[in-house]
Amino acid sequence: MELIRNCLSPFRKVTLADLDKVKLMNRVDLKFCLHVSKLPAILEAIRSEYSVLQINDETVFQYDTTYFDTPDDQMFLCHHNGRSNRFKIRVRSYVESHLNFLEIKLKNNVGRTSKERIVKQEFRPEFTNFELDFLENRSPFSGLHLVPKIGSFFKRFTLVNNQFTERITIDICPGFKNSEKEITLDKLVIIEVKQDKSNDHSPISKVLRTHQIRKEGFSKYCVGRSLLEENIKKNNFKPILLKIKREYLN
Questions:
Q1: Which parts of the chain register pLDDT below 70?
Q2: Looking at residue 148, which CATH number applies to its domain?
Q3: Where in 36-85 does DSSP place strands (E)?
Q4: What is the pLDDT of residues 141-167, one digit of tens each?
Q5: In the prediction, which pLDDT does 60 show?
Q6: Tell me, what's the pLDDT at 122?
Q7: 211-221: pLDDT as tens digits
Q8: Are 172 and 1 in contact (CB under 8 A)?
Q9: 139 is in which domain, residue-wise?
Q10: Is the CB of residue 166 less than 8 Å from the CB of residue 198?
């Protein structure tokens, strides 16, 4: 992790207030997976085009997440089966900031992702009455019928382009756990480029292409469950699972 911090040191710094200019709660997402050994060269190539979020002299932050689903896995199966208008419901903790949010993500039938969230006082897998009302009003799911399925954890840093029109999150060492098992992919980096409109000509997209890194689908919730559970339906995730086991797990 110290190597990554050193790579980020030359970047210009921005604050949370600066980042508010590019919240992109309704956006297009592009995701890329790569081996951590490739990350320093990519950061070196883009550092003049982007700034990095810094809070209290820190640029890399811990995120913990609990994902929820129905007992019969409706949200997981919608994603697996390629359904449009699919939801994810999660509680996320920004560990260093001591902030927790209950979040609803929707990917609609034209490929846009929207997110709504409310502050949650504690990082716990139970819902208050206010949170139940939020879920009832903003999603097709009742919080009374949702159960925690897996935990996810990772380190993240956030970049923003010089025009404040594009935000990039870069996740390092993602891990997944349930009551029986835990897996950490310490060689995997997940880059997510968040834009108002899809733009394959942004600086990072160009650099990734020169490194022969192509965009691909990656859901932490679905990949995590597929890695942790033997009997869950996962046929449509086999290409990404095989890549993970071949390049990032051993």
A1: 24-27, 198-200, 250
A2: 2.40.320.10
A3: 50-53, 61-69
A4: 999 999 999 999 999 999 999 988 899
A5: 97
A6: 94
A7: 999 998 899 99
A8: yes
A9: 2-247
A10: no
Is residue 235 helix, strand or coil? Answer: helix
- Residue 235 is predicted with a pLDDT of 95
* Under 8 Å between Cβ of 226 and 204: no
What is the per-residue pLDDT for 21? 80
Catalogue the E-assigned strands of the chain: 12-14, 26-35, 50-53, 61-69, 86-94, 99-107, 112-119, 147-161, 166-177, 182-184, 188-195
Strand-pair partners of 169: 158, 192
Instruction: State the Cα–Cα distance between residues 96 and 166, nearest whole angstrom.
Output: 24
pLDDT score, position 201: 76
Give the rounded distance of the alpha carbon of 71 from its chain centre. Answer: 23
The tokens for 155 are 């380190």
Q: What integer pLDDT is reported at residue 199 of this predicted model? A: 67
Residue 141: how many other CB atoms lie within 10 Å: 18
pLDDT value of residue 209: 94
Query: Strand 50-53 and strand 12-14: pairing?
Result: parallel
Instruction: Collapse the DSSP code of 214 into the 3-class scheme (helix H, G, I; strand E, B; otherwise coil) and give the result.
Output: coil
Contact in structure between 169 and 160 (CB atoms under 8 Å)? no
Residues 6+ apart with CB under 8 A from 200: 30
Q: Which residue has the tokens 């110290």?
A: 2
Q: Are 107 and 85 in contact (CB under 8 A)?
A: yes
On whether the CB atoms of residues 157 and 51 are closer than 8 A, the answer is no
Q: How many distinct structural domains can be found in the chain? A: 1
Residue type present at position 158: T
* Helix pair angle (39-46, 203-210), 10° resolution: 140
